[in-house]
Amino acid sequence: MFSVNLKGKVALVTGAGRGIGRAMAQGLSDAGAIVAVNDIDAASAAMTCGSLNSDANPYVADVADPQAVQGMIDRMISDFGRLDIVINNAAVEPFASILEMSIQDWQRALDVNLSAVFYISQAAGRIMKAAGGGVIVNIGSIAGHNIPIALRSGYVASKAGLIGFTRECAREFAAYNIRVNTVCPGVIETEMTAHLRENKEQMAKWLADIPQGRLGIPEDVVGLVLFLCSDGARYLTGQAINVDGGKVMM
Predict the structure, then answer these.
(1) Is there a catalytic annotation at residue 235?
(2) Cβ contacts of residue 222 below 8 Å, gap of 6+?
(3) Among the residues of 12-91, which ranges form H helices?
């Protein structure tokens, strides 16, 4: 794992109860950061906190609710007095054709995957501006570029919007010494993809399209995230970086 020193930093990770979010919380903790673990599920947030090596607090909130987001940020500042790093990771992926998708599922995808990033970036950005700087890393997807994913229109649309928002947020926040980037994973071995990985035909298709010949694991994403949070990435902002074993270039 890429090694950085984040001792003394306070980092918020949304959707950290499982999968990539939990792995990122672990990576930040291993790097010395105090981690604010957000999840909509209290038991999952508590489980992640219990697995970390440094100080960590659970914050149960639905990031699609702007009032809940502001309350969570307020509690964090009360608890820790600062906020240096935000990892916007929480996401949903409704599965349905455009003709069959419910309005509720479509709206939920936009609310969690895109609007929540605005709510958190706004609330955290105000704190970071006053403090003289910070880092925001949004977890997107190669689906936000030109990689089609069948029956995931809400997910694809929200991730494409996230890349655009990242650029504009980075442009505006640069004046405040706040760096904003997006990490775009390909297919990663997590709970979200478990049922699809059981399909041998689907797995064969994925592997045929990935030059490295394997799916990603959460640690592949964590290494890049840690770099973006470090001073080594101090001249890097407004980017959407793929972590996909080379799939997008195909």
Answers:
(1) no
(2) 1, 20, 23, 24, 26, 27
(3) 19-30, 42-51, 66-80
Query: Domain boundaries in the chain?
Result: 10-190+217-242
With tokens 């895109």, the residue in question is 114
Please compute Rg for the chain using Cα positions: 17
3-state secondary structure of 61: coil
Residue-wise pLDDT tens digits, 169-217: 999 999 999 999 999 999 898 877 767 788 888 888 888 999 999 999 9
CATH code of domain 10-190+217-242 = 3.40.50.720
Kindly name the residue from 59, 119, 155, 176 that is annotated as catalytic.
Answer: 155
* pTM score: 0.95
The three-class DSSP label of residue 110 is helix
Q: What are phi and psi of 127, to 5 degrees?
A: -70, -45
Q: Distance between CA atoms of 20 and 110, rounded to whole angstroms? A: 20
